[in-house]
């Protein structure tokens, strides 16, 4: 068999077996080869290293503390050229943008037509990006509005503190957790509120949920 005729080797990672089985059947019906199915982010990283698939499809959310983004980071650390497609029933703007910022080739919703997933895999395999029409329009809208997410406005420490604020921790509790002074946390939290334009606790929490930083 010539190099051009070899089937595209695809790996799936999702903690819902029925979802994985359905997508695997669709991919194999299109002439692709499913070389592995992982159920956790850590298993996905290990399976990718073992199988070295042409394309990997990662669920965004798993029933663990780790996410598809964590799995992607682990995979890209070992193989910066990995071709990743994210699969999700969640479609927060910040998550969509973060996947492409990481270097993903596509973001596909779980309710998409199987032919869309097949097309996404073929595009990724060829090193091309693939956008579902609704995803493309949302990315375009974000570009017009400008990137005003917490992720874009805050540095790593600021984002960590913002997430703790959103979870309802007091300045004193955050200071103890991060081994910093209460005064430092008070100053940083005030700066965060001003940068993001939110001051009430309820609005801080809603903003964090909207951008996928904490679970609703």
UniProtKB/TrEMBL annotation:
Residues 147-212 form the HTH luxR-type domain. Gene3D superfamilies: 3.40.50.2300. Keywords: DNA-binding, Phosphoprotein. Pfam families: GerE, Response_reg. Residues 9-125 form the Response regulatory domain. CDD domains: LuxR_C_like (cd06170), REC_NarL-like (cd17535). InterPro entries: CheY-like_superfamily (IPR011006), NreC/VraR/RcsB-like_REC (IPR058245), Sig_transdc_resp-reg_C-effctor (IPR016032), Sig_transdc_resp-reg_receiver (IPR001789), Tscrpt_reg_LuxR_C (IPR000792), WalR-like (IPR039420). The modification 4-aspartylphosphate is found at residue 59. PANTHER family: TWO-COMPONENT RESPONSE REGULATOR. This is Response regulator transcription factor. It comes from Massilia phyllostachyos. The lineage of its organism: Bacteria, Pseudomonadati, Pseudomonadota, Betaproteobacteria, Burkholderiales.
């Amino acid at each position: 068999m010539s190099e051009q005729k070899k089937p595209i080797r695809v790996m799936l990672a999702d903690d819902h077996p029925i979802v994985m089985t359905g997508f695997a059947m669709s991919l194999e019906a299109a002439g692709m080869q499913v070389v592995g199915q992982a159920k956790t982010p850590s298993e996905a990283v290990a399976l990718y290293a073992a199988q070295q698939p042409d394309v990997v499809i990662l669920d965004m959310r798993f029933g663990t503390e780790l996410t598809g983004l964590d799995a992607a980071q682990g995979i890209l650390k070992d193989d910066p050229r990995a071709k990743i497609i994210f699969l999700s029933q969640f479609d927060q703007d910040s998550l969509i943008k973060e996947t492409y910022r990481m270097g993903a080739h596509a973001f596909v919703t779980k309710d998409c037509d199987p032919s869309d997933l097949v097309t996404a895999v073929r595009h990724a395999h060829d090193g091309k990006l693939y956008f579902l029409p609704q995803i493309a329009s949302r990315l375009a809208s974000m570009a017009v509005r400008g990137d005003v997410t917490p992720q874009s406005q805050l540095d790593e420490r600021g984002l960590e503190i913002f997430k703790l604020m959103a979870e309802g921790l007091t300045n004193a509790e955050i200071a103890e957790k991060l081994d910093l002074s209460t005064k430092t946390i008070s100053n940083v939290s005030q700066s965060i509120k001003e940068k993001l334009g939110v001051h009430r606790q309820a609005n801080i929490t809603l903003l964090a949920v909207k951008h996928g930083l904490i679970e609703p």
